[in-house]
Sequence to fold (694 residues):
Amino acid sequence: MRDKRMVLFGFVRGAAAIALALAVGTIFIFLSSDEPFTALKYLLIGPFVSFHGGVTAFNTQNFYQVLAAMIPTIFTGLAVCVMFSANQFNLAAEGCVLVGGFVGALVGIYVNMATGWHAVICVLAATVVCGLIMLIPSILKVKLGASEMVTSLMLNFVLLYIVLHFLNYHFADRSKGATMTYPFLDSAKISSIVPGNSKLTWGFVIALVISFVIWVFMYRTRWGYAIRMIGINESFSLYSGMNVGGTIVLSSVIGGMLSGMGGSLEVLGRYNTFVWRELPGYGWTGVTIAILAKNNPGLVPLAAFFLAYLNKGCQLMSTHSDVPSEMIDIIQAAIFLFFAAEQFLSGYRQKLVVKTTREELMRAESLKATEGE
Amino acid sequence: MFGQFFQTIFQADFLFIIIRITAPILFAALAAVISEKAGVANIGLEGMMMITALFGFLFAYWTQSWVVGVLGAMFVGILLGLMMGFFSFKLKTDIILSGIAVNMLGTGGTIFLLYMFTGLRGNTGALVSPNILIPTIDIPLINKIPILGDILSGHAILTYLAFIFVFVMRTFLYRTPLGLKIRAVGENPNAASSVGVSVIRMKYIAIAMSGALAGLGGAFMSMYYSQGWNQGMVAGRGFIALAAQAMGRGEPVGAMFSSLLFGLAQAMKTKVSGLRGMASYNYLIEMIPYVVTIIGLVFYAVSIKRKARRHQLRPIKEKLQ
Fold:
């Protein structure tokens, strides 16, 4: 009874947060746009419905594109989940995605392997490199107590400039106008699972599998338990003899590995050469996803889907109306704030708890009464 | 190459540049100091600076007055601070997460708001005019002194304000009742509350002041430093300021010195990239301020750890003697 009500409350609360955020978005649309209803139409149902020639129909290509957009964000979402679960506000997933993509691309260009293992090697290389990178903020935190948040933020910029340096002065294809690497070998590319140009690759399947694996890791293994325990109460974990430092490093390294994997799958699946010239932003989306999923890896794909849908809606809105696509950041920030707010709708929660308890008491009393007879 | 390097560094204009670059970081670092003193980790500084930089510029443009622009930026900063406070103290969002939300607003939201208000995309280059930029002033007497005058005179008004605020802040925190209350709340909220200090209220005051200071930093960026608002203008200064606060041990004067260190790193960056033979290292040079920040944090953390160990050892040593 109690559990059922609390699950229900969770849903109501989430829905209310999303509704409020969309309301904020709507207000801004009405303030800024001359054609607010067109904008809203594309934002809310645009990703799935096509309006071509007055006929409304399910838009398969857009649907695939939404799913494809989930590939990198599922990985960063999982990465942030694992790190936030250990109470590590490590924000270097952003830089790791970039480095992962770059390393994956380099292996895809310069290591010549004919077999189907090539792509696997690319992704593994990216995974390992990014796992190693995460040793920096986590060891500084564990050994010296340097704030992992500040070091990881700085690390993002450092990684960006290192990648740009190597991209520009060592691996650039000078025959092209823009700075980019040589094209990947065909054996390194991640192939699509659906026909068309949606870039929905095997990376999506891998992302779903990894989500399940990370869920099992977090909720069914002792390491996952240690990570979550440290997040809940670090002192308790320390006094009960857990290896707190090692576990924090472990969680960060796993976070780095996941981000690197996501970055390389995205780059090898979506592009022909490495073209990123700035931080891709997937790390920050990952933070939002982790908040929406309440740090539960099982819910990450759902949250990633929601954000990808919203993002696609914003893109369509900016093409078909006069509202800029950056609107997404305002909606996202609002969702973020309300979702993370523990006290949001706490009055309603309190009422539910009181009601449930009263009912339980009544039942207990009536049971006693029947026993007395 | 090194001869050339030192020649450029030991010049009055290099020191002038350091002071100019330090000012916005210093404002943000002071913003970090005041909120941290109340036990509030304000990582939204980056976003706050972006948003206030935009609004400062817009207010100045609408009224054609830089004073209104600066005040407007401070006002928006205070509002953002109070918003973070509302979500974190009232609705219990983790303060770090509400900071991240403000940063999100800072990156994308500003572009949207700029478009909404002006129809421009990405930057305000078209709107800049001299009377909305913060004026520079020559200090009488000092500007007559040969080298010192070149270094200290001719800065923007806000630059001087930033350095004055360091000492104002120190006096405020250590010589006024309100400052004492804020520090008490940061150090031990339960003790503070037991003597009748409203913890929540002090936190609100601190984060609002933090917002106002970030607003000054933002206004400085858009109305003087880069002469107009553009995307990616703040470039991590809000985060660097957090590091400056940590390295300065959370004290205003300490934060000033670490801000100057970052100013130096940034100024070196501009100087070194101008040297011959360095062109192909420009991206690695871009990295300098961020690497310096990490190294600075490590040194700070090591020194704290040493200090803690010494404190632990002292009683044992005394017993042994």
Remarks:
- The interface with chain B takes residues 28, 31-32, 89, 140, 144-147, 149-151, 153-155, 157-158, 161-162, 164-165, 168-169, 284, 287-288, 291, 324, 326-330, 332-334, 336-338, 340-344 of chain A (CB under 8 Å).
- Chain A is about 70% helix and 0% strand.
